[in-house]
């Protein structure tokens, strides 16, 4: 019955999105249904919602999102994002490269707000050649590719720690799948952006490179502080903001204006609602029933865990599934190693691109005024293709290499 309830809950989300309700409203409906179906006592739910809204993880997400948005407003005021787009075009003479490379580079910044910095560059590169739904997908998709293989993300570090797989071997083995992601995004959407037909600008390439880094140095500085010094996003962004204040001599009135414009109430509310939804699902323990249900299927055990991880990630998010399922999978699968981890992490990654618990998806759909459902629809062809390719690649790793 728990799984039937889960299906009803997610059907409610889909129905709400079909009627073009904001994601936070659709998930609020799902939360109410979950409380009723799983018979969660009202007092227990109130405590759960308060804890989910005020815990350190939620507060950190809200602060990180706000501070990144503040930095974005400062960069927009000085047209730095436009300069980055122009510099990329002068370096490669390709708006297609702009649409793919800029979100990927900015995506090295592990913050939900980073996707908003990439969006204006994608807008300029795609122009009218991609519709709003396609721009939503391209921005979100390329911004998240680094989460597949970069060991600076918590989910990957947790997976490596739980399985004992060598970090370098994992990163190297994931690189072909990174190439696959870039290729699939190009084939399905980016190729709609026409090749540049204007003559190449004779500007020195070194000048273009300098202009590009001049435009995105705040993101570069923040990323270095996070990756090298392991500073949290909120604190890592502050030096860039302070340097921007002095370099560009922003007035107090301008800084106050940025503070107001960086406050996106609907997006912040969505973050809180999603965190409450995750807490309710964890309380129901529905994920823990999945191995028993799918274990009776007449398919290999690796495929069973792949299905569980895919569905569980959509429901509860990647970190929850990695923590719960990877130890169990590596205990149940004889001689499990790098090949299995590549498969499970690839599936976990792509499932997050259609998960309503993924904060970035709520943020980017709100930015483009598109629906979460339309983003899922745009993602499905690549999701299916990527899972097939990842399965074949992992089979080769398991059967013939490792």
Question: In words, what does this structure look like?
Answer:
- This protein has two domains: 146 residues, no CATH class; 158 residues, no CATH class.
- The chain has 20 helices and no strands.
- The model has no long low-confidence stretch (mean pLDDT 84).
- The chain is globular and about 65 Å long.
- The two termini are 40 Å apart.
- By secondary structure, the protein is an all-alpha fold.
- Helix 1 packs antiparallel against helix 2, helix 2 runs parallel beside helix 14 and helix 5 packs across helix 11.
Could you provide a short overview of the structure?
The chain has 402 residues and is mainly α. The protein has helices spanning 2-18, 23-37, 42-54, 56-77, 80-92, 95-106, 114-126, 132-143, 154-163, 167-188, 205-229, 233-247, 252-261, 265-284, 290-294, 301-316, 318-332, 338-352, 359-368, 372-401.
Question: Which helices and strands appear, and what pairs or packs with what?
Answer:
Elements: H1 2-18, H2 23-37, H3 42-54, H4 56-77, H5 80-92, H6 95-106, H7 114-126, H8 132-143, H9 154-163, H10 167-188, H11 205-229, H12 233-247, H13 252-261, H14 265-284, H15 290-294, H16 301-316, H17 318-332, H18 338-352, H19 359-368, H20 372-401
Helix pairs in contact: 1-2, 2-14, 3-14, 4-12, 4-13, 4-14, 5-6, 5-7, 5-11, 6-7, 6-8, 7-8, 8-19, 8-20, 9-17, 10-18, 10-20, 11-12, 14-19, 16-17, 16-18, 17-18, 18-20
């Amino acid at each position: 019955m728990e799984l039937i309830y889960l299906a009803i809950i997610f059907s409610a989300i889909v129905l709400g999105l079909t009627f073009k309700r904001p994601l936070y409203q659709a998930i609020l409906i799902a939360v109410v249904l979950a409380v009723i179906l799983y018979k969660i006592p009202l007092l227990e739910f109130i405590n759960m919602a308060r804890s989910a809204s005020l815990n350190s993880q939620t507060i950190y997400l809200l602060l990180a999102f706000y501070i990144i948005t503040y930095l974005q407003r400062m960069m927009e005021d000085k047209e730095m994002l436009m300069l980055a787009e122009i510099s990329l075009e002068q370096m490669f003479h390709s708006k297609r490269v702009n649409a793919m490379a800029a979100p990927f580079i900015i995506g090295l910044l592990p913050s939900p707000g980073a996707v908003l910095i990439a969006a204006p560059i994608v807008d300029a590169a795609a122009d009218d050649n991609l519709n709003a739904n396609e721009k939503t997908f391209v921005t979100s998709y390329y911004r998240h590719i680094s989460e597949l293989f970069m060991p600076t993300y918590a989910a990957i570090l947790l997976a490596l720690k739980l399985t004992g797989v060598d970090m370098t071997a994992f990163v190297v083995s994931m690189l072909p799948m990174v190439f696959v992601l870039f290729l699939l995004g190009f084939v399905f959407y980016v190729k709609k952006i026409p090749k540049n037909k204007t003559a190449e600008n004779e500007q020195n390439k070194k000048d273009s490179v300098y202009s590009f880094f001049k435009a995105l140095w705040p993101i570069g500085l923040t990323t270095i502080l996070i990756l090298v010094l392991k500073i949290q996003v909120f604190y890592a962004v502050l030096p860039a903001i302070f340097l921007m204040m002095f370099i560009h001599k922003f007035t107090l009135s301008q800084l106050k204006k940025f503070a107001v414009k960086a406050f996106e109430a609907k997006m912040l509310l969505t973050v809180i609602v999603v965190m409450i939804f995750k807490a309710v699902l964890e309380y129901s323990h529905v994920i823990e029933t999945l191995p028993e249900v799918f274990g009776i299927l007449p398919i290999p055990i690796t495929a069973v865990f792949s299905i569980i991880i895919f569905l569980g990630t959509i429901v509860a998010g990647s970190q929850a599934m990695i923590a719960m399922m990877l130890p169990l999978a590596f205990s149940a699968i004889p001689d499990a190693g790098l090949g299995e981890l590549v498969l499970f992490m690839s599936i976990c990654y792509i499932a997050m691109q259609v998960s309503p618990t993924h904060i970035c998806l709520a943020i980017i759909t709100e930015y483009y005024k598109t629906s979460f459902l339309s983003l899922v629809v745009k993602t499905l062809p690549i999701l299916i293709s990527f899972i097939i390719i990842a399965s074949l690649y992992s089979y080769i790793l398991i059967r013939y290499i490792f």
